UniProtKB/TrEMBL annotation, chain B:
InterPro entries in the record: Asn/Gln-tRNA_amidoTrfase_suB/E (IPR017959), Asn/Gln-tRNA_Trfase_suB/E_cat (IPR006075), Asn/Gln_amidotransferase (IPR018027), Asn/Gln_tRNA_amidoTrase-B-like (IPR003789), GatB (IPR004413), GatB_Yqey_C_2 (IPR023168), Gln-tRNA_amidoTrfase_suB_CS (IPR017958), Gln_synth/guanido_kin_cat_dom (IPR014746)
EC numbers for this chain: 6.3.5.-
Protein's gene: gatB
One Pfam family, short name: GatB_N
Function, as annotated: Allows the formation of correctly charged Asn-tRNA(Asn) or Gln-tRNA(Gln) through the transamidation of misacylated Asp-tRNA(Asn) or Glu-tRNA(Gln) in organisms which lack either or both of asparaginyl-tRNA or glutaminyl-tRNA synthetases. The reaction takes place in the presence of glutamine and ATP through an activated phospho-Asp-tRNA(Asn) or phospho-Glu-tRNA(Gln).
Keywords: ATP-binding, Ligase, Nucleotide-binding, Protein biosynthesis
Name of this protein: Aspartyl/glutamyl-tRNA(Asn/Gln) amidotransferase subunit B
Source organism: Propioniciclava soli
Keyword Transmembrane annotated: no
Record-linked SUPFAM superfamilies: GatB/YqeY motif (SSF89095), Glutamine synthetase/guanido kinase (SSF55931)
Oligomeric and partner information: Heterotrimer of A, B and C subunits.
PROSITE patterns in the record: GATB
Amino acid sequence: MSAAILTATASDLGRRIAARELTSVEVTRVFLGQIKRVDADVHAFLHVDAEGALAQAAAVDARLDAGEELGPLAGVPLALKDLFCQEGVPTTAGSQILAGWRPPYSATVTQRLLDAGIVILGKTNLDEFAMGSSTENSAFGATHNPWDLDRIPGGSGGGSSAALAAFEAPLAIGTDTGGSIRQPASVTGTVGVKPTYGGTSRYGVIAMASSLDQPGPCARTVLDAALLHAVIAGHDPMDSTSIDAPVPPVVDAARSGDVRGLRVGVVRELSGEGYAPGVEQRFGEAVALLAQAGAEIVEVSCPHFGYALGAYYLIMPSEVSSNLARYDAMRYGLRAGDDGTRSAEEVMNLTRGEGFGDEVKRRVIIGTYALSSGYYDAYYGSAQKVRRLIASDFDAAFEQVDVLVSPSTPTTAFRLGERTADPLAMYASDLCTIPSNMAGNASGSFPCGLAPEDGLPVGFQVMAPPLADDRVYRVGAALERALGGGVLTDRIAERWTAGAAPDGSAPDDTARDRAEEA
Amino acid sequence: MDDLLTYDAVLARFDPVLGLEVHVELNTASKMFCGCDNTPGGEPNTTTCPVCLGLPGSLPVVNAHAVESAIRIGLALNCQVAPWCRFARKNYFYPDMTKDFQTSQYDEPICFDGWVDVEVEGETFRIEIERVHMEEDAGKLSHVGGGTGRIVGAEYSLVDYNRAGTPLMEIVTRPVRGLGAKAPAVGRAYMAMLRDLMRALGVSDARMEAGNMRCDANVSLMPTGTAELGTRTETKNVNSLRSVEAALTYEMRRQGAILAEGGRVVQETRHWHEDGEYTSPGRNKEQAEDYRYFPEPDLVPIAPDPAWVEELRASLPELPARRRARLQEAWGFSDLEMRDVLGNEGSLDLIEATVAAGAPPAAARKWWLGELARRANEAGVELGAVGVTPEQVAQVQGLVDAGTVNDKLARSVFDGVLAGEGSPEEVVASRGLAVVSDDGALGEAVDAAIAANPDVADKIRAGKVQAAGALIGAVMKQMKGKADAARVRELLLERLS
């Protein structure tokens, strides 16, 4: 019973809860039990809000018992990246500088989840302020990849992707600035979508780089991701960059999966040197499957994609340097060295020195430099020009094709510690994902099998024009069906759910809270 | 204390150049980027929210009404309105800044390239406006325990973020040259003009003493006959019109003394001390702070619809300069008379209201600038707060015109009105102030005066009509001022011709 709940899809759980075959409380208890059982090994969560989750679940049950009609995911538990404010619940962004902070308000996405009756189990681990590709930059310890605990779960949203792969939650939320949803999805064999920039609200999401950040859904199946996308997307007057347009028909697209006649462009520049053979092999097979399903495959060139990573590492840190200025010890979070002898400026310096990790400092310093007078035009200014060229590459490509495809990341999950000493190698993880952030279009990563050489998941990226998010799901659903053999993560289901208590026994009330212990 | 050159000596050798940066707090209902109440004051940190507190994750949304106010200000200052502009972030760390950057505008202001004329002693000066841009105010720091209220020596500091996020307009002039001795007065007149303009537009209370309108006064001196600008200083904390003039004068004299001795003026921010009437150095700007401006990525660009801008232009209220010209013409005041009016704070509105209540313009001006200005001055209050309404002034004048009271009695009427004895008519009745024009009573007094002053009577009989004044005075004295002087004169001349 319990294992069946853990491995069920979110849409199935939602249907059974709505039909009152299951209660939300019972489902929530099963997942809280799983977290308690496995998270010591995985470390997907920074904070488990057992009490809050059970209260939310009970409220949903009461509404359903009263005959209220709720959405398709009502009562289904979810893991929330610890970058989203949730009123009263610790929110750290993976940083010591915010340890212990409880926001007095909720992000729009958080609120929409709660309004839809989705139960928030807790907050998941991430690289500090979402800066990284492995979660190793978290101030509270790395997350482990459920496919191989010695390997990274991707980043920055590794907590969310690992929680899905270890069956600790059927749904998760991430944010994607340069690939933080798609690369973790790729290396954990799960689904992750970065909506069109402006498609989901950033209000209440702790900012890394404002012009690039975008919240999005994470799940084990394409339909589950689409259902979640539909819950969180749509115009928000609290976010000026939010698009005031109808949400693209993502759920219909995920249910359809019909790619007949769809023109699919394979990006020439996102292959070759640096790409693992198993990645290229599985990617090629997936393209062939789409062709078999009726898609028209062409090769497309995007000549400026090669400059995307360099431009990204100027624009992103520039915005970071400004967005992270507010962590100054004056109003909330860590305050270091305030012993009554020091000036406000000294306390600011000491706090930022102590509270930020190395990668955050590196980006703040790079960004400060790039925006400095005398350097602005050469760095920030040039990078913005490159950004426009990347967008024009997409525009030209989308005149020929309906979607673009590539591997989601050049390699499968690397080992923990393998790239921590080499930031440039770490940055290369986002080579394929960054162009979509620079242009603001929709993009998702879908499982396309295991690399023969290491047996680890390979991700297939689908990129669509702004506001054509439904095409991403259409192709993802087509691929999911064509691959056969069921959902990829089912291959490790036995390992992670064997031994789950048959009654889904509840965790005790002292839910672990690593962020606060730390 | 600084060495100062005399003002005349400064002007003998140098030409002053002004530059004024004025911040105006808008009186919009909500703040610049959030829905918080924009009413100033209140219990500290009560009109705040995640956005104006800069909490992690919060995002700004532009107040459309503030944009409208900015455009209207720009139009009133004859500016171009940008078809497309953006906000920018000005990055610096300070505890009154919730985000440690100020959301402002940098190289893309909403309005630019304007001008406005100000008048000083009959001479008109054109001030060119470089830009009008939108930004947000910071919180308010108070330093506790140091005695002086300043940060040096304070035990601790408190921050009130109620003001954080208040919409601010920054209005910047181009360097203003060719003002000569009138430079400080032009600075003051410009501020008064802006204040009146803000009030006419209804966009700000524009009270300098309340900090609604703040002036950073830049001035430099260049040797007469040269064209190269000198080094300027920027004086802050100039909180009244009078201080603008005084601070500019002080800086001209201080810089003049330095330059006269071959010294070098330091480019810096200076602080105006209202009490001692001097400036002292503030932050040294020689090493300009690098604010790392870049376009605000959390806000979309502003592209005002040209049709909307034209609507705003068409619906601008009558602006102060135009209104003054119209009223001067309608009232038939000479330039000198009008200058007196404009030199008396608030008198223009009061005269206009008095005329509207039925008084002739000249009479309205006479009362407000004479008798009532004197009383306001004695009481140490603004003219508008003197305690007499324009309607009452018009009523008093009506009594004068009807011959019920003369000017002298009218002053007593004002006494009664101010003492709360009721309307002017009621005061006249209760105090028995009406002039006596009854020939019986007057005739007796006239006869008595002639009898008491036979010499004067003889002179008048001999044709020296101007001597009648002495006898009229005697009658008035006898009648305790309540005689109708014109009728007394007639009766006198009847009897003595």
